[in-house]
């Protein structure tokens, strides 16, 4: 049956697949995308579901997953997007250095530790949470100190946050009573 189209994407329904009628899944089928002149060679799986008031159509080649699992994985994708948006906004990390799972985990953990150290620093120094203005002020202050000491800035920048935090936290935690 050709002619089923959604937003300029046509598909042929090869077989409707079983789904939980009471769940969020509206439609689950094995399909072939494209019109008669431009169709895919391989069969794909189309899942239609509603989440947060929106309807989503997801196409996958994963035959081993149920419709509910596909919808769940898609919802996790948005949680991951939200996390990385927060990470970019607060830590100014715009790309991943590593591509392996271990390398990404290390970079994420390093970023979280850095953010927690910044929270401790700003709470102790200013009595508030980190803000973009305060971060810029701290960066400017560290660059000025580096310039006064004639240390090349490119050697300082990768460790800027850790050094600044150690400078503030260390004397307080080791002060004599």
Task: Characterise the protein shown here.
The chain is an alpha+beta fold and 177 residues long. The chain folds into 2 domains: 72 residues, no CATH class; 82 residues, no CATH class. 49% of the residues lie in helices and 20% in strands. It is built from 5 helices and 5 strands. The chain has a 5-stranded antiparallel β-sheet, with helices on one face. Helix 2 crosses helix 5.
How many beta-strand elements? 5
Overall shape: elongated
Strand order of the largest sheet: 1-2-3-4-5
Number of helices: 5
Give the SSE layout.
Blueprint: E1 4-6, E2 9-16, E3 25-33, E4 44-51, E5 54-60, H1 67-91, H2 101-126, H3 132-148, H4 153-156, H5 160-173
Antiparallel strand pairs: 1-2, 2-3, 3-4, 4-5
Helix pairs in contact: 2-5
Quick recap of the structure?
By secondary structure, the chain is α+β, with helices and mostly antiparallel strands.
Descriptive terms for the model:
177 residues; alpha+beta; 2 domains; 5-stranded antiparallel beta sheet; 5 strands
